[in-house]
Amino acid sequence: MANDDKVRILPYDRIYKNFIDYKYIPKGEDEYYLRNEQSVFLREKWRHLRAEEIESLVNNKNVATNWDDILVTDEFDPKMVKRNSFFGLVRIGRIKREVLEYHDLRVPVGITDSSIVSCDIGDDVAIHNVHYLANYIISDRCILFNVNEISTTDHSKFGNGILKEGEDEDVRVWLEVMNEAGGRKILPFDGMITADAYLWAKYVDDKQLQQRLFDITQNSFDPRRGYYGTIGESTVIKNSWILKDAKIGPYTYIKGASKLKNITINSSEAEPSQIGEGVILVNGIVGYGCRIFYSAVATRFVIGDKCNLKYGARLINSVLGDNSTISCCEVLNNLIFPAHEQHHNNSFLISACIMGQSNMAAGATLGSNHNSRATDGELVASRGFWPGLCSSIKHSSRFASFTLLSKGDYPCEMNISLPFSLVNNNVHKDQLEIMPAYWWMYNMYAIARNTSKYHKRDTRKRRIQNIEFETLAPDTIEEIISACKMLEVWTAKSYLRSSNDDADKYEYHELRALGRDLMKKPEIVNKLEILGENIEKSNRKVVILRAYKAYHAYHDMIVIYAMDAITKYMINNNTFDYELMYKKFNGLRRKVWINLGGQMMTQEDVDQLRDDINNGVLNSWEEIHNRYNELWKRYPEDRIKHACLSLYFILQTKEISKDTFKDLLLESVDIQNYVCEEVYRSRKKDYDNKIRNATFRNEEEKIAVIGSLDDNSFIKQIRKETEDYKSRIEKVISMLN
Question: Cystine design at 493: which of 247, 503, 581, 670 (Cβ 3.0–4.6 Å)?
């Protein structure tokens, strides 16, 4: 058994000496040299205790290994320091006869009933009943009350996946995200955002990139041993058990935590973080403004800003994006982009990349690996993924944006490539059914509300991770275009089968042309059984429902996306020369867009980013983040160009006359009117549902509970947006040259 696993007897002074092994202390320095670099306190203000102060401290039942090692300031009242044991060099800031108040807790400034080893303590600090406080720098106005242990080791890494001098590689902390087998492991670090995690975990085949990101991370932190733990100003830690190798930001509130080990908790006055009862956090990073409560457990993790973890949630080997909430569930080996909701009991998510704006229902079991002998399956879901109650999904599966799964046990792996779809496992018919564009056709209230909902919920003060919240954006539009092509081909094949014709003798472009022509004839398409291909790993049918209506819904989504973007650009830039604008934005449409942690980038920009990291153009995470921001500033122009070029797919030509453009403007008004009407109608269904209304004794009670339909804030908002859109279109039409 190793010596570290035994209780050993050491000389008495080792309780405070040799915090750093002498071989790691530079020549001419002592073991406090890094502590002195870290300390925000001015050395000039410290002084030794006066004889009468020592006498008062002794009378108050304080003990010290050496009273000469206790330094104080001129504002030091020894009467406020009682029944403590001091070991080694302890420097204490201002202590006056005052009281600190936080919520309902009021405690006197001072130090009582505590054991303190080699610490720097700021001004107006209250430390009471802390059984063991070792090697920490505590800032001003902190309260430490009823804590068993707060300590730091000489090799503290505070949750960062680095090594200190002399450490073996096998002690490095990795996060095994997206894949349970560890094939996409990344190093956590303070400041990591989901874009960083995805760049690292996705491009594992780029060995040079993997090595560069490894080196950048290791070099971002000082490998020297001997850094002290820090507790930021105005932090309150009470009734907690163990804090070890923890870096605590200012204005943090920790109450009743069980164990916080090898972590960084970021916090600020503008975005304070809180850690609550029974929480265990080990090996990770907590972002700004987080709330972690009620026996939540996280190990090997990075949690973004403004996240909630509560009610017994387990987060393991995962990265959780900003503005996300997880509770009552188990989340293992995942990379989760911003605005993720998983706050119902007994849901399970494993080995997944969930790309944001998602909601996991109660009982959902996502990513079972029991269909394989290996643990290397994966699940990838684009934005807006929403599995229904008790949905069970197997590895490996992929889902297009805004896929809605109806309640069910899905027996096979799936590749759902049609966005905004409703997917149903029809057990009675033993077939998988997909209704493309379901959200647009039957639940407009939810899809239209999506963008404004996430914008309102984004209360981050420091927005490091750039996030696209618009439902219709380059990523979803490209999925829509691909879906239209698939529907054309599948419709053509179904028609040929019904005519006893062999679809295999036709070329791809011929099938698409036939499908486009058929999509003008609902009387034919609506009678066909249209079958999807390469969607489920099974021999059963995959039936595409309401393909004709979905195809044209996709058409409308492209038109409203393009015309909304184009007209905003025209008005914002006061340019109404249609032909000049189209010359500016002419060229090839960027067809591959990468959702990099919530930020949209073209494939070309991501490739250039990787090349610049590999070639040493970008040499730090700060420089990489600056590149993200440069691309984000350019994104509006990239988006308007993509919007313009998307129209070519609708019109099947790059020659768009002014009259055609005006027709598209007028068509977009009709589409916006449809959106407004469907928002009202889809919400009205809930109000008119007789079964739903059965719980109310009369109309007045119902309105008192759920409000009036016409007073619905989002319905009012969408009506105003529709009127504003009409006014914008009228202005553009009147100004067109």
Answer: 503
